[in-house]
What does this fold into?
Amino acid sequence: MMIEKLKKKWGVNNLNLILIICTFAIGGSFCGFLGRKILGLFEISNGLLFGILYVVVMTIIWPACVLLVSVPLGQFKFFKNYIQKILQRFKR
It folds into this structure.
């Protein structure tokens, strides 16, 4: 089962897995909300330019949003390490 694979891969228990999944969900939603607000400041509403800039903005602010949400859920250490691994892959 996928849940068991994630628990084993990340080395977490059931509660921490639930908190990690919630952090991904809430952080991603928060990131989407902020991304739309940021693009709204520049009066970019729709179209190809909006789509391209939205992806760029989301890529930039997602790590900060997820880290911010991870603090109250007690998952900061996990997400700090997770984001560091992602950044190391980009550096290759």
